[in-house]
Design goal:
7-stranded mixed beta sheet, 3 domains, 21 strands, about 725 residues
């Protein structure tokens, strides 16, 4: 697939942004990674350019983040080169990885701890109130002057989350990439030590520049290597951050800058005024983030062909379809003339223009926050933080918030099943504010819902509730059962069945939200449901797990089937109850699954062209010939799925239709402007008729049956005419 928006881990997009900006910064600095003084003429030219930039009213902050415990280990497949550029070729190449586990053969993170207690000497804390900067005369605690004070949560931890260092963001990455980062196996070569990270942000959390100071292999001391001092490195970083801001916006210079290191503050007192920037009188001792502070999830766009970011070149969309971003005519013509012809932009341009025309239809949602979340510049992290959606299942939507972790649980495959099942499902939907989910309605639904507005009205939810982002998965299953299967497969009479066995194939993000599927038992109280999650990407330790969700008073409890520990307070299953939800897990590709035939198969945001296992799973579905429905995040993905289905089985797919229960959050794409939403479109598989079965498709109306011909009566023989001979008659 040409476009992987919505299928790629957003942390990888963020890492590619960091590597791309740092690579440009290091090359323009002319000193590589190790440091060194640039030419004096280039420095004066840069200063003159920065002084002419328009002022930014926002306060800028220079953070100094030391690192003592995490090192970078290179795999045999990694591109050798300067330390901070490790893995950049894989992140920025033509075939970028889709998840963090794909990077493990090339680069991994290892622990540098050798039995010593780790001391956190962060120079910044959170003593400030209401986002104010305390400019006190007291000496600040810094990495150069370690403090014995207890660590308090503050902005540096947020910054480390974004940078992937020792923070909750790093923990989220550790869970994905495998056990090498902790006290696991290491490569033969000594791991490189990232001694310090310089980070420039504004007061709103937008990252503007980054510099990585390598300390060499494990055991080498010092905060930075090379002849260039820390102050000169920081000054050069500030100049590049103003001339070429990483996050967003045009080049600009701040009116005021604050620094978190006293010694670095003193060294910058004579340098920063050259740029026309006012340096705070004293170094910040503490910095309290404002109530709405969060690192912006806005990421710089990139050219679809050469992958250069918007801070390197000026990007423009295709003049005809407006869907694909390019950096110039060279890349436009390179994409237009690709071979074979069906992968060129010449072939796709009119189709992409039609896809762009559906943007307004996909954004037509009834919520009060629709304009914000369907905007092309939607900031998801700010939306979640401003509404207090920072715990429970909401952490699965954020790149910054740490998800649940079990002690001693092997990382690499997401949260363990025991944690995914901990707690009432409605408690997992809650944020930090008032309850989001009202009590269950006293009466069951009178008819099938066909829109979010109807469902919200019956459930007692206000249209300002963001729960549609999580409930898109169970409501999509409900819509398939109550609307699409009766329309496409009326002979199954699925609405009158008392039990349904449903396979969720190649399960991914929906498995991490597994408890939200309890809502199906509320919407379909007359049906005994069994959901079986199947997929090779599921955690192997959860294979063959089986459990039951059942109502326990006013809440929901978990009763184990096999391999799942009982949830506290779970009771015995009521005999004959249909409000139970059976859930099974099979951590294997679908074509390797053994068991009874399901009533229905469904897959979420499947991406047939991105996984080779679909080339075996689709023929398996062809042999089962069960109704199989799939969602995709864009019409482009639906077209690619149809091509994969035709190549794998000779069958096809039904025309995709918009899903009324799609997620309201618009997915941000880096190299295109197409509208992407989770579960945006639905289609079902159209199977090829089996050979030798006697079943032939009806390609069109039957040909007309010719009318029977009436034999002609021979005319009466006239007098004098010869009677035909017998031989001639016999010959005839």
């Amino acid at each position: 697939m040409e476009f992987v928006s919505g299928y790629r881990d957003e942390f990888l997009d963020f890492a590619a942004l960091l590597f791309g900006w740092f690579r440009k910064f290091a090359s323009e600095r002319g000193t590589g990674v190790g440091g060194g003084n640039g030419s004096e003429g280039r420095s004066r030219l840069m200063e003159a350019q920065v002084r002419r930039l328009p002022p930014d009213p926002a306060l800028w902050v220079l953070h100094i983040l030391p690192n003592r415990s995490v090192g970078i280990s290179l795999g045999q497949g990694a591109k050798q080169g300067p330390g901070p550029g490790l893995g950049a070729a894989r992140l920025l190449g033509d075939e970028p990885p889709l998840c963090l586990r794909d990077l493990s053969p090339y680069v991994s993170f290892v622990s540098l701890e050798d039995g010593e207690e780790e001391e956190d000497g962060e120079e910044e804390g959170t003593g400030g109130e209401e986002g104010e900067l305390e400019e006190e005369g007291e000496q600040a605690t810094t990495s150069r002057e370690p403090s014995q004070d207890a660590e308090t949560p503050g902005e540096p931890e947020d910054a480390e989350e974004e940078a992937g260092e020792d923070s909750s963001g790093g923990d989220k990455m550790e869970k994905e990439m495998g056990p090498e980062k902790r006290r696991g196996k290491r490569s033969d070569a000594a791991p490189l030590h990232l001694a310090c990270l310089l980070l420039v942000t504004d007061e709103h959390g937008t990252i503007l520049g980054i510099d990585l100071l390598m300390g060499g292999p494990q055991g080498s001391g010092g905060r930075a290597t090379g002849a260039e001092g820390l102050a000169q490195r920081a000054y050069t970083l500030l100049c590049h951050s103003m001339a070429c801001p990483m996050g967003a916006g045009d080049p600009r210079r701040p009116r005021q800058l604050t620094v978190g290191d006293p010694q670095l503050h003193r060294e910058l007192e004579n340098l920063v005024p050259k740029l026309g920037v006012k340096l705070a009188k004293t170094p910040m001792r503490t910095w309290g983030p404002r109530p709405g502070f969060t690192f912006a999830s806005l990421r710089a766009r990139a050219c679809h062909v050469c992958h250069r970011h918007s801070f390197e070149v000026k990007l423009m969309p295709c003049s005809q379809c407006g869907a694909v971003l390019y950096c110039g005519e060279t890349c436009v013509w390179a994409d237009w003339r690709r071979r074979p012809d069906d992968v060129s932009h010449r072939f796709w341009c009119p189709r992409l223009a039609a896809f762009m025309g559906r943007a307004g239809e996909l954004a037509a949602l009834p919520f009060t926050y629709t304009a914000e979340v369907t905007s092309e510049m939607f900031n998801k992290e700010a939306f979640l933080a401003s509404r207090g959606l920072t715990r429970g299942y909401w952490t699965q939507l954020s790149m910054l918030l740490p998800g649940p972790v079990a002690p001693g649980c092997p990382p690499g495959n997401g949260p363990p099943l025991s944690l995914l099942l901990s707690g009432d499902p409605y408690q997992l939907l809650q944020g930090d504010g008032p309850p989001l989910m009202p009590p269950l309605p006293p009466d069951p639904p009178r008819g099938p819902f066909g829109s979010w507005q109807d469902y919200y009205a019956w459930r007692g939810l206000g249209l300002d509730s963001p729960l549609a982002v999580l409930l898109t998965y169970p409501l999509t299953v409900y819509y398939v059962i109550t609307h699409l299967v009766p329309q496409s497969f009326p002979e199954l009479n699925i609405q009158n069945k008392q039990s349904l066995k449903i396979h969720v194939v190649e399960a991914g993000k929906e498995f991490d939200l597994i408890m939200v599927f309890w809502e199906l038992s509320v919407l379909l109280p007359h049906v005994a449901l069994e959901l079986q999650f199947v997929g090779g990407a599921l955690p192997p330790e959860n294979d063959q797990q089986h459990f039951t969700l059942q109502r326990d008073g006013s809440g929901v409890s978990v009763r184990p089937g096999s391999g799942v520990s009982a949830h506290p307070g779970s009771g015995a299953k009521e005999k004959g109850s249909r409000r139970d939800l059976q859930i099974k897990v099979s951590a294997r590709p679908y074509h390797l699954l053994q068991g009874p035939k399901p009533d229905l198969v469904i897959g979420f945001n499947s991406g047939f062209g991105l996984k080779d296992t679909w080339l075996s799973s689709l023929p398996r579905l062809q042999s089962l010939r069960v109704p199989a429905f799939f969602t995709e995040s864009s019409e482009y993905s639906c077209v690619m799925d149809e091509q994969t289905m035709a190549g794998a089985t000779g069958g096809g797919t039904s025309p995709p239709q918009p899903n009324p229960f799609r997620s309201p959050f618009r997915l941000r794409a880096s190299d295109n402007c197409m509208p992407w939403y989770y579960n945006a479109f639905i289609f079902h598989l159209v199977y090829k008729p089996p050979q030798g079965s006697g079943i032939r498709p009806a390609p069109g109306p039957a040909p007309p049956v010719p009318a029977p011909t009436v034999p002609l009566v021979p005319a009466r023989r006239r007098r004098g005419e010869k009677r035909p001979s017998r031989g001639g008659r016999r010959r005839r």
